[in-house]
Amino acid sequence: MTFATFWKRLWEALLGRATSQPAAVSRGVSSDANEAAAYGVQVTSATPAAGASYWKAVRVRHLAPHENNGRQNLYVNINDEAGARIYGAQARIGWSGGFQVVTVDKPTSEPGTNLPMWPGQVCDVIALGVPGLELASDKVTGLHTDHPDEATGNTRFHHSFEVTFQRVTAAVPMPVNASGVQGRVTNGAGRSIVLQREGATVATTVLAADGNFSFSALAAGVYRLSVAGTAVTSADIVLDGQNSVTVNLAVPETPAPAPANVSVVQGRVTNGAGRSIVLLCEGATVATTALAADDSFAFRALAAGLYQVSVAGTAVTSAEILLDGQNSVTVNLAVPEMPAPAEKPLPHYVLLAPVNTPAGRVNWQLAVAYVQTFGLTVGFDKAQARQAARVTLIGSGAEAIPAAVAQELEAAGCQVARIDGDSYAIEAELARRIAAGQA
């Protein structure tokens, strides 16, 4: 019989109680593994290979008086990954000068196995597991009963501990090629973005329609991004093999090219109201339009070239007009006034559309102030109008005096002009003439 065994049996005899009966203890697993640190208990972690199974001390606790009932035992549980008891699994309890292997064989109402402790004994425990399938194990040390009396009931040399081991898998370190770089390139859709490390191209991708990009599975290092075909480059991007970095870039907007066919030729033809004005390019007619009531005209959306404008039915023609496709040129012309032939009895006649038409009635109302201001003759008869040196036609459209009548009047020696447009345009032109004092 060893000295340690002698003292163990002597202590059990002095206590006068069986030590093989388990304490009524709780076997829940706590996330705070070492709950007995205040009693000098320590846990030394195992160092298994990454991904390997090992025995982890998931709970170490000191029993409360109502659980201990004056005992001095070391209880051990050995569970599988799900927390279920592994019967037949073993643990090694050691002390100075000896050790004992204990086997989990108790019913589930008790801890898996136990060993009584005696005064002066300081124990440590590791899980061995099922014989023949030993794994690395955490080691719990500093387990002993030589603690002062406690007001709650545990007395010196009457302290018990419970250690629970569970089979777990050691964590696998994070991969070292798991960094990522993502972001967005404003105005970059359709371009290629290049990722480089220390000047060497690592990857290239085409930017999406929204300008977004992403590179993944990158190792640690210093990287840079550049947008192909531009001078856009990022600052250094430091990756540690696990982090993720967002980088936003912008490609400067390219100014839109100036439109090439937006030149304008505009102006006014004095005494030209009612006539047509013709736009020519290198002698060929490009466009024709009627002069407005205020004698104005405008030709727009013109390409570069050498142009002229002329007043139809007259010898009035402009000088050459040079357009570059973007400029605007103003040209003012004048149709000479034709003196009234001496035989014309009326100096100025205002010819309106028939009064029985809507246009005739409206134009009559618009012309009243104009006619009264200058004392003009007004009527609806083209034969009477032929007796005037000047004839002003008011109105345009389907109900207005037709162009054929204007031609007849010109053939009869009348100087003919027309004030056309809608009622607002006619009213404005008549008001302008009244204000200018020019009939």
What does this entry look like structurally?
The chain has 439 residues and is mainly beta. It has 4 domains: 3-169, Immunoglobulin-like; 179-250, Sandwich (Immunoglobulin-like), CATH 2.60.40; 263-334, Immunoglobulins (Immunoglobulin-like), CATH 2.60.40.10; 346-436, Rossmann fold (3-Layer(aba) Sandwich), CATH 3.40.50. It contains 6 helices and 27 strands. The strands form 7 sheets. It has a 5-stranded antiparallel β-sheet with strand order 1-8-7-4-5, with no helix packed on it. It has a 4-stranded mixed β-sheet with strand order 2-9-3-6, with no helix packed on it. The longest helix has 17 residues, at 358-374. The radius of gyration is 55 Å and the shape is rod-shaped. It starts with a helix and ends with a helix.
